[in-house]
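Saturday, quiet lab. Running sequence design on the structure tokens for the scaffold JK sent over.
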């Protein structure tokens, strides 16, 4: 069956994140600075500890449902843990989330091959993005910044629909939007446990992009190799073009 649609993960697939998780500490510091300016009198160390406790608890709470609460929920809960009652709609919480996102944005790059690949696929295939991020506004801003929106027929962000990969719902949402079947669709992503596992579970063909300098290579464990096998592994986006030629025969 010929491939009719190609879906992409966003971060570390189309848009590499420089330094892996190196952004996290400075982004938290920017968030903390905003809170200090709004009268939240706690040290960064105290804030950082409370934040990670809250974040990890949210991950545990949503491990089975794969819900994706907005990042502002983490901030609100962290502040409540520290004795400050700001709900998710409070301007202080919104400003904190924006500060975190702005710092994160500084670490995001456009892969050298992204635009060329999208140009060559656009018009020949239905194209989409399925991305996990709890600050969906950031994903949309980056797509505008790099002028990528015009290539895609659907863009599904986990924070917009409160569901994250590998839940089947987020993949099925993309398929429904494109009007294609799973077996007519190729998914390209960089993470076995979310991208490849989730896409395979709904019946898509899968390609894992495994750049030699990617920190995600650390998650390429022998256990995952036996349990989650992509149909193909590539090291650069341009390889997708040749793969699609092969699969269309």
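Result came back. Writing it out in full:
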């Amino acid at each position: 069956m010929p491939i009719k649609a190609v879906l992409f993960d966003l971060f570390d697939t189309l848009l590499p994140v420089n330094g892996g998780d190196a952004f996290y500490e400075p982004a938290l510091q920017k968030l903390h600075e905003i809170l200090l300016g709004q009268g939240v009198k706690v040290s960064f160390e105290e804030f950082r500890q409370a934040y990670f406790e809250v974040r990890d608890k949210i991950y545990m709470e949503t491990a089975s449902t794969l819900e994706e609460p907005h990042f502002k929920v983490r901030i609100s809960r962290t502040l409540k843990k520290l004795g400050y009652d700001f709900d998710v709609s409070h301007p202080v919480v919104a400003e904190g989330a924006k500060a975190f996102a702005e710092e994160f944005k500084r670490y995001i790059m456009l892969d050298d091959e992204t635009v060329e690949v999208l140009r060559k696929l656009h018009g020949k295939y239905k194209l989409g993005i399925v991305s996990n991020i709890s600050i969906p506004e950031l994903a949309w801003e980056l797509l505008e910044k790099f002028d990528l929106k015009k290539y895609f027929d659907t863009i599904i962000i986990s924070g917009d629909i409160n569901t994250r990969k590998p839940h089947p719902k987020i993949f099925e949402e993309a398929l429904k939007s494109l009007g294609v079947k799973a077996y007519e669709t190729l998914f390209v992503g960089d993470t076995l446990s979310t991208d490849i596992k989730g896409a395979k579970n709904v019946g898509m063909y899968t390609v894992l992009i495994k750049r030699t300098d990617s920190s995600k290579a650390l998650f390429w464990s022998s256990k995952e190799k036996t349990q989650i096998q992509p149909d193909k592994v590539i090291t650069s986006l341009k390889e997708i073009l040749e793969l699609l030629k092969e699969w269309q025969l």
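Notes for JK: The radius of gyration is 19 Å. Residues 101 and 138 are 6 Å apart (CA to CA). Ask whether to fix the surface positions before the next round.
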